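[Solved] Which block belongs to which protein?

Original post:
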Amino acid sequence: MAGVSILFIGYFYGYSDMAVYIPLIRRVLDPTFLHNDWSVAHEGGIHSPFIWAMAQLGRPISLETASLSVHILERFLLAVGVYLLSQRLYQNPVAGFVSVLVVTLSSQWNLGGNPIAASVSIPHTLAIVPAVFALYCASRGWRWQATALAGVATYFHVLIGLEVMLLLGAYMAWRDGLRDRSAWIAWATYAVVAAPMLAPLALRQLHSMGSTTVFGTEYVDIIGGLRAPWHYLPSSWPPSVYVTFLVYLLAGGICAYFARSAYSQAFQRQAIFFVALILALCLVGTVFVEWIPSSLILKLQFFRLTVFIKIFVSLFIACYLTLVLQRRDPLQTGLALLALVNVNNPYLFAVFMTLTLACEVWQRRTRPTEQQTTLKRGLLGSVVALPAMATLGVLALLLWLPKVSELRAHLVFSPWPVLAVAAATVALWQLLVRTRAMRGGSAVLIVAILMSVVLLKGRFLTGPVTWSRIQVAALGRIQPTLTVRTDWDSLCAWIQQHTPRDAIFITPPYLEGFRLRAERAIVVDFKSTAYLEADVREWRDRLLDLTSHVVYTRKQDPYPAMRVGYQSLTPDAIRLVAAKYRATFVVAERPTRFEMPLLYENASYALYQILSQRL
C-alpha cells in the first residue's frame, strides 16, 4: 500500500518545499554554503530539528538517498497508522486496506491546502505520522503514550505537535475531567518531551516581539494576505474548496449513520468530538485572522488540523464501502467500486458516492430489516437520511455546475483503464458470489482495486502493458535525483559552473529552486518566507524592492503582480537594488532585456552582469 501510494502520487527530489529545505540542510553540512544569503540565515528556526536530522542522515550517504529513504519510511508508517486506526472503528482487515487507500490517494479535501501525503517529505507530512499514532493511542486509552507521540510530532512540525496536544488535552478533560491524575501525567509527559524544542522557540518569539513594532494587523497582511492566503484566510478560498470539503464531510457522516451498528460506538464518539473541536478551532482562527487580526493565532494556523478531519471521515467512508462490497447487490457494488477508484477525483467521487448512498436509502425503504420496521426507526431514518442525501446531492450538483463544459474531459478514457476497471469489477463480483466474508479473496480484491486506481487515472499506462513501458512510466513518476530538464534548470546549471561561489543574484522572485539548483545566494524569493516578526517585514521590503514596489491585491494570487513588477525594473532600479543588497548578477525572463553585459541566454531566460556605473 505504501509503495502504490508513492507510485501514484510520485516522488520528486527538490520539488516544491524541498527546494527551500535542502539548501538549509546543506548549510548544516557545510557552514560556508550560501553563507551570504539573507533568507537562509533567517529561516529554519521552527524546523531546525528536521533540518539537523536530515543533515545527519545525509552525512554517511547522499542527501538524495537519505531523502528518498525518509520518504519511503514516512509513507509506510502512515499506512500502518491509518490501518491501526481503522481497526478501532471496524475490525476488518479489508476495511483497513481500503482505509489506507482512501486516506493516501484522495485529493486535498481538507481546508487550507495542506495534504496528508505528498510527493515530497516535508515537516508537515512527517509530523502527520506520529500524530496519527497519537490519535490511535488516545483511542486505546493510552494517555501518556499519546502525548509523548504528540511531543515527537512537535519536533517535526511545531504547530502540528502543539495542536494535536491541544486536541488530546481537551479530549482527556472531556472524558476524565480536569482532576484525573493520569491526565496531568500525560501533560507532564508532553512537556518533558517537547520542552527542548518549545523553550528556545518561545524565547526567540518573545525577543522578536520585543524588538520590533510589527503589530498583528501588519503581520497578518504580510503572511496571511500576501504570502499564503490559501493557507490562512478562508474568505480568499474559492467556493469549490468549501463544496468539496462539505461533500466529503457529509458523505462520511451519512456513511457513519448507515453503518452505525457495525462501527465501534466508543470510537465514533471520539471521532465526533475531535471533528467538532477542530471545526471550533477553525472558527476561532477565522475570527482572529479575518476580523480581529492576531499574529499568534495566524501562526497557529488551525486549518492544518482539518487533515485529521479528513482522516476520520476517510475511515468512515472506507469502512462503509467495505460493508457494501461484501453485499450481493450488483448495482450498489458497482457504484461503490467506482466511487473507490475515483477517490482522488472530487467530481467523480461526489457523483458515485452520492449514487451509492442513494441506493442505500432506496434499499432501506423498499426492503427494511426487522429493526427498521418499528415506527421510531422509520421516522429517524426519514428525518436524518433523506435530508442528508438531498443535501449531498445538491452539493455534488454545485460541484459539477462550474465544470459542465469539462464534462467530456472527465468521461473520456483510453480502452486499457476501462478494461482494468471492468476486470476488477468482474473479479470482485466472483469473490462476492463465492465468499460473503471475503476472507479468502481479500488480497486479490485489494490488488484489483489498486490496479484500477492506478490505471484509471492514467498515472502510468494508456496502452498495452509491457515491462519497458512500466519502467519508463515509473521513472517519470519517481525522480530521486535532481536532473536538468527545463530552461530554468539549464540556466541554473550554467551559473553553478561559471560564476563565483560567493556571488549574490537578483532573480525573478516568483521562480523557485534557484538556491538548490544554482547553489548561489539571492536577494529574496517568494517561497522562502521568514517566521519572526522583524524578519517578516524585511522579507516584504526585499520583495517590494524586486517588484518595483507594485501594489499587491490582498487575498489574491500575487504571482501576476510580481511578474509585472519584476519585468518593469529599469537598469537604474536594478543597480540601486544591487547596491543595497550587494548583488552582482541579474536574471531576466525573456522577452525582457536589460542594457547590461549579457553572459548567458536560452529560449526563456538571460543572465546579465551588473556594473556599478553605466558603460
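(Second protein starts here: sequence line, then its C-alpha cells.)
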Amino acid sequence: MDALRQVGLLNPDNLLWAISIAILLAIYLRSRSRPTLEVSSLLLFDEAPAPAARVRHLRIDPLFWLEAAILGAIALALAGLYLRTAPAAAQGKTRALVFDLAAGMDAREGGGTRLDLAKKNALGIIDAAPERDRFILIGYALEAEMIHSETANHDSLRKAISEMRASAVAHRPAAQSAALMRARAAGEVDLFADRRPSDSILADAGLSARLHFHQAGSPAENLAIVSLDPGIPNISRGHAALKNFGRKPRVCELAIDGAGKTVFDRSLILAPGEQAMVPFGPLTSGGLVHARLVSPDALAADNERYTYAPMDVAANVIVLSPDAVVRDDIARVLLAVNSNFIITAADPAKFTAIDEYSLAVMHDCYIPSVKARAILLVFPPASVSAVADLRITGTIPAAQLTGQGRPNANTTPTFLGPTRRINVPGWMTVKASGAVPGMHEMIPMVAVGSLPSGNLGLLSFDIRDHLLLDPDRLDALVATVELIRELTAPTQLQIVSTGAFLAIPAPRDARIVTPDGSSIPASRDKWGRLRIRPLQAGHYSVESISQKVDIYANYYDAAESDLSGYSVPSATMAAKYTTAVDSISGPKQLRPVSMLLILLALLAMIVESALLLRNARRWGLRHV
C-alpha cells in the first residue's frame, strides 16, 4: 500500500484511442447479427439463399476479450499512464529542509537564537538519515531562496546550515508559500519556523508531500522603537515611539544621541501592549540622531533607530515655471520642507543660468544649462527626452495617483489633472504609480534616481490650479514633500529601511563594511552606481579611495516584532496539527508504465494467435 500512491495520466487527450474498443464492439455486433448456416441440398447446380437467423444478443468469446485488452493497453500506453511510487531503497529518500530566516528567528532563546535551535534540529535529522538519503535546503524571508540544491553530501549540507543567518526583515507570506512550492519535488518537507503556516499558505503551496512542522522557540517579551522624529533643531521637540509587545509591565532605559552627544537618557515603565510617545529636545544642532534601548530584550534588531535632523545651513534653490501661480506654490512647499532655503523663482523664457544651485525645480520646462546638484522635473516637456534615457511618449488628460509603491498613502486613489506618459529608465526607482481612468494600464507618477552627475526626481502630473495646496488631494503634496526631502538629503549619509534597494553613485568600485564588521566587495553597474540591499539593522559603510558613504538601516515590523502574539500549541493541539499535515502525504517518484502495457498487449496478441491456430487445426481455415 505504501508503494502505490496514485494513478494518473500525463496526456489524457490520447484516451481518444480508446474509441477503437467501441469499433471492435461494432464489428462483433455486425458479424454476429446474421451468421450463415450450412444445410444439405438436392439441387446440385441451383443457387439458393442460405437461411439466416437473427441474433438479438451479442455473444462474445475469449478472442473478443483478448482484442479488447490489446486495444485498451495500447490506448493507456499512448495516454501516458504512470504510477506514483516511493523511491527504491537503493536510491534513498529526498527530503526538503525549509527555514524561516526573518527577524523573528533571530530572537534570543536560551543560550542562542531561535535559528540556532532550528539548525540543531535540522542537523539531528541529517545525522539520523541514511547516507543515501538526499536533502534540499531552502530559506525564505523577503523572497524564497535555494540555499543548497538536492544532494546526498551530508557534510556540504551541514556547512550550508551552519552559515545561514537571519535577516532583519519581516517574512512575506508569498515568500513562505514560494519556498514550500520549491519543496514539492521532495518526498518529505521539514519546516523550521517560529510560527505555524496558515491554512491558506499550505493551500497555495499545493504540497503533496508529507509536511513536518518544527516550531522554533516560545513566546517571549519584546520592546521596540516604532518611530523616531527629530523635530526641528532649536524650534520644536522630537519624539520617539516605544511599544511593549509583552504581557507584563516592562522597565526600559531609552537613550538618544544627537550630534555625537547624549540628549536624552531615562528609564521608562510601559504597560502590557502599551505604545508610548516620548518627547525629547529640542536639538541644538542638526545631523544624525540615534535612539537605542539600553535594556536587553528578546530581539535586538528593533532596539535601535536612526534619523536625520536637518542642518541649519542655507541652500540656494531655483524654481522655474511658465506659470507664476505654480512658482509661488512650489516656493511655499520648499520653505515648509526647509525654512533655510534661499529660493529664486523665474520664468524660464527670461532666465539665464549663472549660479550653481543645490536644487533646481523645473515645471513644464527644461533648461539644460542649469547647474544643480539635484533636479526635480515636474510635468516635464518632450524636450527632456534627451536627458539620461528619459522619454516622454505623450500626455493623458487625467490620471489617478494610487497607493502602489507608497506604504503610507491613502487607499482611495487621488484624481489628478494632465499627466505625462514617461518611460522611466532603469537607473530610476518608481516611488508611486497611477492608473489611467477607464483602463487597466499603470503609469509611473513619482520617480527618483542618482547618477554620478547628481540626483534627479520626477513628478509626471501637472500641479497647476493650486493642486499641491488642495486638501482633497493631499497625497500629491505628501509625494512631493517626500521627493524633495530625498533629493536634498546629504549624499554621504543615507537612512533607509532594511530590505530596501539602494543605488549609490560611485567613481569606482568599492567595498561595503556591514554592521558585523565583515567586508564585501561591490562593483558598479553600467550607470556608475553601486547596488546595495541592507538586510541587517545598523551602520553600513561604503568605502572607496575618493569617497565614503554612511548608510544606517532601520528595522521595525509590528507582526514580526510581536514575539508574544502567538501561543505554543498544547500536546493535544500539536498532535492534531501534526496528524493534519502528515496526512498530506503523496508521491515520491513518477514511474511510467507504458512499457509494461505494451508488453501486456504483445502477450495478449500471442495468446490470441495461439487460439486462432488451435481453431484452424480443429475447424479448418474457413471457420477461423
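Accepted answer:
You had them paired correctly. Confirming on the second one: The chain has eleven helices and 37 strands.
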